[in-house]
Protein: NADH:ubiquinone reductase (non-electrogenic)
Organism: Nocardioides lianchengensis
Amino acid sequence: MAAPDHPRDTPDRRHQVVVIGSGFGGLFGTKALRRSDVDVTMVAKTTHHLFQPLLYQVATGILSEGEIAPPTREILSGQKNAQVLLGEVTGVDLEARTVTSHVLGRETVLAYDSLIVAAGAGQSYFGNDHFAEFAPGMKSIDDALELRGRIFGAFEMAELGAQRGDNVDHLLTFVVVGAGPTGVEMAGQIAELAHRTLKRDFRSINTRTARVVLVDAAPQVLPPFGQKLGDKAKSELEKLGVEVVLGAMVTDVDERGIEMKFKDGRVERINTVTKIWAAGVQANKLGKTLAEQSGAPLDRAGRVGVNPDLTLPGHPEVFVVGDMISLDNLPGVAQVAIQGSKYAAKEIDGRLKGKAPQPPFKYFDKGSMAIISRFRAVAMVGKLRITGVVAWLMWLGLHLVYITGFKSRVTALIRWAVSFIGRGRSERTTTEQQIFARSALARLKRGATDLVSQPGAYDAARELLETSRREELEAQAAEEARLTDSGQRGANLGEKVS
Ligand SMILES: Cc1cc2nc3c(=O)[nH]c(=O)nc-3n(C[C@H](O)[C@H](O)[C@H](O)COP(=O)(O)OP(=O)(O)OC[C@H]3O[C@@H](n4cnc5c(N)ncnc54)[C@H](O)[C@@H]3O)c2cc1C
C-alpha cells in the first residue's frame, strides 16, 4: 500500500478532514469548513458537482450537462483550505484512518483525522442487475446523455422504419418504470416531446401517436406525496397522454420490451425499445465497508445505521451523511444531505474549538415537489398541498436558487424560456457513443483502465524501446566507423552500384 499523502506524524500539520463525494453532502460539507482551522481533501469519482434533480431535463434536451454539473474544482477554487482529488474510493480503513481511492489504475491513500462520507446512492434493480443493460437508470450525467440518445434515437429509427413501411410501434413506445418524482418527471417530459416539441419535425411518423407508459408496483403515483397529490399528478399525466399502469411489478426486461405481472397473476408484455428505470435506490457500497468494520447496522437498501449525531458507532471521527444513512426514516433528498453535512462540519469545527457537542441532528423538512410538465407541478410544504401553476412557479424559483453558479442560473433560465414558453429544446445533440459506450465499457475486464497503460508501464516500455534503439544506433555507428577505417566503404558501394 502506498504511503499516506498526509502522514499523521508530520509536525505542525493541521487537522485533516477527508470528504468522500462531491454531491450535495460532500460539497456543502466542504464549503461549511471554509473558515475552520483544517485542511479539507474532497475525493470524488467525478470532477463535477451533480444537481441530480435536473438530470431528467438533460435527458430530454432542455438543459446541457454543464448547467447541472459544474466542475467542483472551480466551485472550490476560492476556498484555500480545500483541495479536490479525482478518484473512486475503494476502501476505508477505520483502524488506520485512511481512505484509498483509484482512478485508471492510480492509487491514492489519504490519512484523515475526521472523515465525512457522502457517497450517495445508486440505482437498484431489486436483484435484477441484468435489466440495466436495456433499461438505464438516471443517476449520472452518463445516464442522462445515454437516455437522451435513446429517446431521440428511437424517433429517428421509427422515421426510417416507417419510410420502409415497417411497423414502428415498439420504437414509438416509451416505458418509464417507477412513479416517484423522477419517473413522473421523465414520463411528463417524453409526452411533451412527442406531442409538442417534435410534432413538426418528422415526415413519415406522427410523433403525437407515441405511447408513453408509466409503470409502478405501488397502487398510486408519487406515494410519499399522499393520496390527494398522487391522484392529481396521475390525472395531469393522463391529460398529457401518459398511460399510468399501477399495481404492476416489472418481472423481465429485454432488448425489445418489458414484462409485468399484476396482483391478480396476469402477465402483460409491452413491446418497447426505450425503457427507463426510475425505481429503487441502493446506497453506495462503501456503506457495507463501514458497517463491517464498525458493526453498524445496514438496512435493506444498504444504508448505514448512524448515531443521532450522524457518527458511525464507535467512531466519533467518522460522519456519514445524505443518501447513505438510515436514521429516523429520513428521506433520500438533497436537504437531508445538505443539512447533515453542515451539521458534521459544525461538529468538527466545534471539537477543535473545545465546544460542547451539538444536540442530535434534526432534519428541517422544507417541503417536496415534483414537476409534471410545463406549468404543472405538485408541492407539499408543511400542511399545505399546492398544485398547478403556483406549484410550478415555486419549483422554478427553488431550482434557480439551488443551481450552483450564477452562469448556470442565467443559462438555465434562458433554456427554460425556450422550452416552456416556446416549444424548442436547446440540447438535442446525440451521438452513437452516447448510447453504446456504457455497454462497450462494461465488456472490458477492468473498464476504462483497460484502455490506458498502468502507472509506470508506459514509461518502462518507452525506456526499453529507447535503450534498444540506442543500442541499435550505437552498433550502426560502430559498423560505419569500422567500414570507414578499413577503407571498405567505397568498395562496398562500388560493388552495389555495379
Ligand atoms: C434523478 C434524481 C432526481 C432527484 N430529484 C430530487 C428532488 O427533486 N429533490 C430532492 O430533494 N432530491 C432529489 N433527488 C435526491 C437527491 O439528489 C439526493 O438525495 C442527494 O443527491 C443526496 O446527496 P448525497 O450527497 O448523499 O449523494 P450524491 O449527491 O448522490 O453524491 C454522491 C457523491 O459521491 C460520489 N461517489 C459515489 N461513490 C463514490 C466512491 N466510491 N468514491 C468517490 N466518490 C464517490 C459521487 O460521484 C457523488 O459526487 C433526486 C435524485 C435523482 C437521482
Observations:
- The chain has two domains: 7-45+87-124+282-352, 129-279+374-442.
- The pocket of flavin-adenine dinucleotide is lined by residues 20-26, 43-46, 52-53, 55, 88-89, 118-120, 138-139, 181-182, 284, 286, 322-323, 332-335, 337 (CB under 6 Å).
- The two ends are 67 Å apart (CA to CA).
- Residues 457-485 form the longest helix (29 residues).
